[in-house]
Amino acid sequence: MANPTESPNLMEAIVSLCKRRGFVFASSEIYGGLNGFFDYGPVGAELKKNIRDCWWNDMVRRRGDVVGIESSIIMHPKVWQASGHVAGFTDPLVDCKVSKQRYRADQLFFSRVVVRKGLQLEEIEGTKTITTTGASISVPIEQATITSNDEVIGYVSALESENTAGELQEKAESLKRKKAVRGQLLPVTPRDMTEAKPEEIELIPSPATGEAGSLTPPRAFNMMFETYVGALRDASAISYLRPETAQGMFADFKGVVDTGRVKLPFGIAQIGKSFRNEITPRNFIFRSREFEQMEMEYFIHEDADWAKCHREWIDWCRSWLVSIGLPESHLSEYNHPKEKLAFYSKGTTDIMFRYPFGVQELWGIAARGNYDLTQHANASGVPQVIFDEATKKKFTPHVIEPAVGVDRIFLAVLCAGYAEEEVKDEKGNVEKRTVLRFSPRIAPVKVAVLPLLKNKPELVKRAEELHARLKRRYAVFYDEGGAIGRRYRRQDEIGTPWCVTIDFETIEKDGTFTLRERDSMTQRRINEAELFALLEKEVY
Ligand code: GAP
Description:
This protein is an alpha+beta fold. Helix content is about 30%, strand content about 30%. Helix 2 packs across helix 11 and helix 3 (about 75-85) packs across helix 10. The longest helix is centred in the N-terminal third of the chain and has 20 residues, at about 40-60. It is globular and about 90 Å long.
């Protein structure tokens, strides 16, 4: 059977599994859902918590140079003015006046459709034929002069996808057929709406209606959610749901330096919700309007080798992703071109992941100079400096910022771990098994405890005892319903790495039970001490 990890239907299979097994639901689903918002069900919440915990343990607790904080979601509005978000946290937006659809201008592509109507030469049965638009004449080849005459016959548009150019080309071919224009269709040249000239906007068809004339020119749309703090609903009460957690670390920099006994280089990390009024939330939880970030600001000396530190953090982030089970083969890097960087930025590299819908940003690692702290020092009047013992001088440190979304990692581990296989059941019949090959570090359930038969009290009692002991330290699941093979399949579908079955040998012989491994499906006898040792080693 083809592994659907390779198939274009992988996203559909994953979304369906997420709903069926309680990973992710649409938010407020009973009211039809709310675009860009999601809820995490029982196993989803465990998976998400494990991703967070792994990051926190490795990023904060197991390093000596990073401390953690938890800042508030709503901060003083001046934070967002100083950071530049009020003025500049915008995406270019295009409206379709007819369908009322909204598009991100940089995700809406168009092309002119150009037909070359010059003379074309054809050799038919030994004679030379020149075909012009609408007519064929046979002339001696020496008399033919070939001129080219390109005509724009219209525009086509398509939303960004894996195959934007292909889609535009198909639409161009169809337009040429519809208009019955003769001549040679030239390859499309995709541009996005931010590159459209004012006179072209009227001519570009809306992807919703297929008709031209309804798209507006791109305009800047601020993605911050506004709210009011206090009883008044006027401009003085406006505040924002944070669009990133990073500003919390900058705003608390002084507090941490004054109290945290930190010395350079050091990092401040936090995990928390962020909110962005995305124009086009899409690809399931990949781009949503409420999501969770894990960000760290690593402060370095102003004279430090920022490029070296930046590279070290890229490598750290990549190896961390591998440590929670993402295959190295799915990861790549994208360096933002210098000309697209903000004036203060020294460099940004994104770690990209191969999702089923394309290679997309998973983790951004930015070298931001000392821009943010300087902005806050200027806006608040409170110096954001650190004392350098060596030079006995105060200065504003520079920063490397690795910023990643929990939900994007969640989706990546689902995509990388999902597999469908044909396996044989106990009777030798071939059946399909769906399995999530999660790393034990992040698997929502670590062990399922299964008494072989539910009507044998001695088996049930022993299984319950083991379950009680395991659950003090690990997320475990007790299941006594159905054939043992079916119970294994249920655990495979939520990615449980191990099942232990309590059988008659357990109670009548040596106390060992069967340990069944998810990926190899092999079974072996193991005792309780060995089981705890295995978990201690693999779940960290
Ligand atoms: N402080 C820098 C910052 O926030 P960003 O590239 O805008 O940078 C960092 O966001 C990470 O947050 C992204 O790499 C992505 O993993 C995640 N992220 C950003 N927008 C998101 C969204 N709308 N939905 C889910 N995750 C998002």
